[in-house]
Design goal:
Number of helices: 20
Helix content: 25-40%
CATH class of the largest domain: Alpha Beta
Structural class: alpha/beta
Largest sheet: 8 strands, antiparallel
CATH superfamily of the largest domain: Aminohydrolase, N-terminal nucleophile (Ntn) domain
Radius of gyration: 26 Å
Strand order of the largest sheet: 3-2-4-1-10-9-11-15
CATH architecture of the largest domain: 4-Layer Sandwich
Distance between the termini: 11 Å
Bound molecules: 6-O-phosphono-alpha-D-glucopyranose
């Protein structure tokens, strides 16, 4: 949520900042800005709306702007104050000699503002960030030391933040710090970088260091110094980033979302690598450290997550209960944190998060940790804040996901839950060996089935074209595919803004059926198994109310032709593994509908990929 980038070196800072912001655009995109030092003066350039507007401003002033070799940039997802030029970062103080960019929320900004106004500071925006600019400037006036000014200011700030600051009286220097929001330093030759996330710098360097909470970095082109909040030096821990810059290219696809959907067969292979070699061998989860005896005795499991990760968690519940016989509760993190949850040291708490930075989920797992629970984190970012809270980790290995609508990371989470459930069942000896062997075999051949769907998308595209003009959409399923219906509906509403809802098919008759008529498409996820006939009956009921019926199925049953006007057929798969396959056509359906409607598929309005505020 929001993106920060900073650069100091011998190249044109604006080019590097804009490149970094482009790669962070998925984090928010309602306004953007950069601060540069041009001929010894800090100057701000800001634009409302998409980053392209800022790029145009830079282009129009390039002769002047290109002189600067130092700068900080920001892309915003508004929390305090509407998206506007005044509220866009960077922000400055009365004298305009300092500029600051900020991710997060300053919780005591109102109190600080009153104090600072009393000291003569004039506020020009409605943001909480502007208090940081005035506060650091006032500390700088006292100390004449930018690092010390930032250090003293952070003693007074409450909340979550990652900030980067420049000041024209301290030429060639960027100071940055963080608390409960990620910040990473990138090391180059005669140049250094800072960013709120790796994509901001991966094009320039793979040498990086993650800053810990309350650490402060002071960087010039040739030096990087880190201290803690008590002014003690911190040794640099430089690591080589495993990311490839190619992850940030669309590789010929029109949108990142389409590229990422097509990456899913390989993602499944990646997730399995090192964890499941053959169907005869046990699953290996090296970073799950929960004692085997303790695992056998677990009395309950709670899973917390948000958005798409919540849907992966719901599948996790289904399979862990089925394979291991342990009760599992799944709850949105935002609900979990505001009630008296029954969590103790015999509870395993699983946090699921693509980014590992979602504020609600971080708070939820921290609360559970305090109660003595073992914390297991399923995440795509082993380098994230949440991963650092973990006692056990299941890294999902989906690579960088750029599209705001999560697809491949969902697939990786779902597969990770199968591995975790099998692992637990093997430790607990709670499931017949042959059944586990069959399931493992099916997991190994799953990528080929996904590939089949991806090479034969005609029916999905036909369906998308036909239904793209509808205002509402219902997805129904039962059992293990109920979360598939929820996720299919979420994908559609996120990127096309169609009012799409997922229901348990059995619930249709208890209310939603009132909405059905010939203006309502109903897509039934109809995978062969325990609930196939039941969903078929529910679909009959919907058809009897003139709903426009679509089936997503692995059945060849010819009877379906009478009931459904469109049938999306996918390869046969066991019911228990079917959510991993059934979601792919729904991702594609949402993509093609949004594409037909001309929507901004990769950056849907009002959303951000990672939501770091509660
Ligand atoms: C945001 C994103 C969703 C994502 C959710 C949870 O709302 O737009 O796509 O599912 O956050 O994110 P997480 O990183 O915790 O999985």
């Amino acid at each position: 949520m929001c993106g920060i980038v900073g650069y100091i070196g011998s190249n044109t800072a604006a080019d590097i900042l804009l490149e970094g912001l482009t790669n962070l655009e998925y984090r928010g995109y309602d306004s953007s800005g950069i601060a540069l030092n041009i001929d010894g003066k800090v100057q701000l350039f800001k634009a409302q709306g998409k980053l392209q507007n800022l790029k145009n401003i830079v282009q129009n002033n390039y002769a002047e702007i290109s002189k600067s070799k130092i700068g900080i940039g920001h892309i915003r997802w508004a929390t305090h104050g509407v998206p506007s030029i005044e509220n866009a970062h960077p922000h400055t103080c009365n004298c305009g000699r300092l500029a600051v960019v900020h991710n997060g929320i300053i919780e005591n900004f109102k109190e600080l503002k009153v104090k600072l106004e009393a000291q003569g500071c004039t506020f020009r925006s409605q943001t909480d960030t502007e208090t940081i600019a005035h506060l650091v400037a006032s500390k700088f006036a006292q100390t004449k030391d930018l690092t010390e000014a930032v250090r003293l200011a952070t003693k007074e700030i409450e909340g979550a933040y990652a900030i980067a600051v420049i000041h024209q009286d301290v030429e060639g220097t960027i100071v940055a710090t963080r608390r409960n929001a990620p910040l990473v330093i990138g090391f180059g030759e005669g140049e250094n970088f800072v960013g709120s996330d790796i994509p901001a710098l991966i094009q320039y360097t793979k040498k990086a260091m993650y800053l810990d909470d309350n650490q402060i970095v002071t960087m010039t082109a040739d030096s990087v110094k880190v201290i803690d909040s008590d002014n003690n030096p911190v040794a640099l821990k430089i690591e080589n980033l495993p990311w490839e810059p190619v992850a940030l290219s669309k590789m010929g696809y029109k949108h990142f979302m389409l590229k990422e959907i097509h990456e899913q067969p390989d993602i499944v292979r990646n997730v399995l690598t090192g964890k499941l070699s053959t169907s005869d061998e046990p699953v290996i989860l090296k970073e799950v450290t929960l004692d085997r005896e303790k695992l056998k005795d677990l009395s309950r499991i709670q899973i917390v997550a948000c958005g798409t990760s919540l849907h992966a968690a719901m599948i996790g519940k289904y399979i862990i209960e089925d394979f291991c016989g342990v009760p599992v509760d799944v709850e949105p993190s935002s609900e979990y944190i505001y009630r008296k949850t029954i969590t103790d040291e015999n509870t395993l708490v699983i946090g699921v998060s693509q980014s590992g930075e979602t504020a609600d989920t971080i708070t939820a797992v921290r609360q559970a940790k305090k109660k003595g629970s073992h914390i297991l984190i399923v995440t795509n970012r082993p380098d994230s804040t949440m991963a650092r809270e973990a006692d056990s980790l299941v890294p999902v290995n989906a690579g960088i996901e750029v599209s705001v609508a999560a697809t491949k990371s969902y697939m990786a989470q779902v597969i990770s839950f199968y591995l975790l459930a099998i692992y637990m069942a093997e430790v607990k000896n709670s499931m017949p060996k042959e059944e586990l062997t069959d399931l493992k075999h099916e997991l190994v051949i799953l990528p080929q089935k996904i590939e089949k769907i991806l090479t034969n998308k005609d029916e999905i595209q036909k369906c998308a074209r036909k239904f793209s003009s509808f205002k509402d959409f219902i997805f129904v399923a039962r059992g293990i595919n109920f979360p598939t219906a929820l996720e299919g509906a979420l994908k559609l509403k996120e990127i096309s803004y169609i009012n799409a809802t997922g229901y348990s098919a059995g619930e249709l008759k208890h209310g939603p059926i009132a909405m059905l008529d010939d203006s309502m498409p109903v897509l039934a996820v109809l995978m062969k198994g325990k609930v196939y006939d039941k969903i078929l009956s529910n679909a009959e009921e919907a058809k009897a109310r003139n709903a426009r019926m679509i089936a997503l199925t692995d059945s060849e049953d010819e009877k379906l032709e009478e009931l459904f006007e469109n049938i999306i057929r996918i390869p046969e798969i066991s019911e228990i593994l079917s959510p991993a396959l059934a979601i792919v056509p729904l991702q594609l359906l949402a993509y093609y509908i949004a594409e037909f409607l001309g929507k901004d598929v990769d950056q849907p309005r009002n959303l951000a990929k990672s939501v770091t505020v509660e």
